[in-house]
Write a structure and sequence with these properties.
The chain contains four helices and 39 strands. It is mainly beta and 417 residues long.
């Protein structure tokens, strides 16, 4: 009878022998469209997971569907959707689409017709360094976990009304996404984030849109280092929670640099909001941390509206705005009570003991804002001597005093513009 050691050795030897008879793993193949297959779809159909499908110079017909985890790579080639449906549809987990020019999708926004559409089954798909033009939606990520959208350029359809365009990059009900280094222009919204969680939106640039970045019902996302210029609204955060919005820049936007409505437990820090209609617009947002932002040279620095309370607003530079704060509320908002206050370009107090905090509170002039809210026709008197006289009287007559923002710990103004 053989002992246990001998049995173990013989089993191991047999397994090794069986393994030696197995064929070696197949190496990835490269299929060149036009050489190995007549078109892109034919090349994709002949490829298996790990293979590379190259699209050389020329215009190749779409639409195409990626059903295996291949690399679909442009080497100078363009895929033309022919004005029907979606140009490239990605269904395989781990598939990569890169370096392609993709254009001329259908125009059905309900379809949704897109340059690239990534389905729920394509977990971990990567879209990298593609150029997308003349498409209803540029990129649509649909319930896809772990997808990456990196370095793509999306040009919308400027000949259409903005409401008739799709979004540049549309993220729907997805999670753990990375959207980095993309550029979007002349679509409807640049990057639209709906019901998407635990994702990173970083170092993207948008311009000439309705909303540069538009969040709806999304939780625990990070919006970092992005730029939004020359749109209606730069960054619009709505109905969302636990966002980290840090180091972004919004300039030259018609209405708002940063709008947040019904946003809770989020951190808004180190953003630059300059030369917009309003730098920040708060609406019914609570329990947020708003710190170290620069709000400068806007028509209105901060517009604060219904139900906005319990926010920690600290160390922001509020400087050179035509109107620093437009506040409408039933009672004073007190800032700086449990934290440092803010730097105000129009603060007229002193810091006699040199501790960096003003010696008296800063009370924002809200008389004109309240009057215009109640009587919109008073805008005709906005810069008249009568309005200026009433505003000055409001500072000393309790009868005319209205609820406003009071910073009880204003910081001594930093040097520089």
């Amino acid at each position: 009878m053989m002992d246990a050691l001998t049995v173990t050795v013989r089993i191991a030897t047999a397994l090794l022998a069986v393994g030696a008879l197995q064929p070696a793993p197949c190496q990835a193949e490269t299929f060149v469209v036009g050489r190995d297959a007549p078109g892109v779809q034919a090349a994709l159909d002949g490829a298996k997971a790990g293979d590379i499908v190259e699209v050389p110079s020329g215009i190749w017909a779409g639409s195409v569907v990626v059903r295996a985890a291949v690399v679909l790579r442009g080497t100078g080639g363009m895929i033309d959707g022919g004005g029907e449906g979606t140009v490239v549809r990605v269904e395989a987990p781990g598939a990569i689409v890169e370096e392609l020019t993709i254009f001329h999708s259908g125009d059905d926004l309900r379809g949704p017709d897109s340059g690239i559409y990534v389905t729920k089954s394509a977990a971990g798909a990567v879209l990298r360094n593609n150029s997308i033009k003349q498409c209803a939606f540029g990129i649509w990520i649909h319930e896809t976990p772990g997808a990456q959208v990196i370095g793509n350029r999306v040009h919308g359809r400027p000949e259409l009304r903005m409401t008739d365009r799709g979004n540049g990059i549309h993220l729907f009900n997805a999670s753990n996404l990375v959207v980095r280094g993309n550029f979007v222009t002349e679509a409807r919204d640049g990057i639209y984030v709906a019901a998407t969680e635990d994702s990173l939106i970083e170092n993207n640039r948008t311009e000439r849109l309705r909303y540069g970045f538009h969040y709806m019902f999304s939780y625990r996302n990070t919006l970092k280092g992005n730029v939004s210029d020359d749109s209606t609204v730069g960054l619009a955060l709505m109905e969302s929670k636990e966002l980290v919005v840090i180091g972004n820049r919004a300039t030259g936007n018609e209405r708002n640099g940063l709008l947040f409505r019904d946003v809770q437990r989020s951190t808004i820090r180190r953003n630059v909001l300059e030369h917009n209609g309003s730098g920040m617009f708060f609406f019914s947002s609570t329990d947020n941390v708003i710190e170290d932002n620069r709000v400068a040279h806007n028509e209105v620095g901060m517009k604060i509206w219904a139900g906005t309370r319990r926010n920690r607003i600290s160390r922001n530079v509020i400087l050179g705005n035509r109107q620093q704060v437009f506040y409408v509320g039933a009672e004073d908002q007190i800032w700086g009570q449990d934290s440092q206050g803010n730097y105000w370009g129009d603060y007229l107090g002193w810091d006699q003991n040199g501790d960096g905090v003003g010696d008296r509170p800063h009370r924002v002039d809200s008389f004109k804002a309240s009057l215009l809210y109640r009587y919109p026709s008073a805008v005709l008197l906005l810069r008249s001597p009568a309005m200026e006289m009433l505003a000055h009287l409001a500072e000393s007559l309790p009868l005319l005093r209205v609820p406003t923002v009071v910073d009880v710990s204003p910081l001594a103004m930093k040097e520089g513009p």
